[in-house]
Amino acid sequence: IEIAPFSLDCSYYFGKNYVFLSCGGFCKTSTCPLTSKLIRFNSCGHEHRNRIYTLANNSYLTFLIRNNKHNVYHNNLYPCDNGKCVTYEKVCNVMDDCGDGSDE
Question: What's the whole-model pTM score?
Answer without folding.
Answer: 0.65
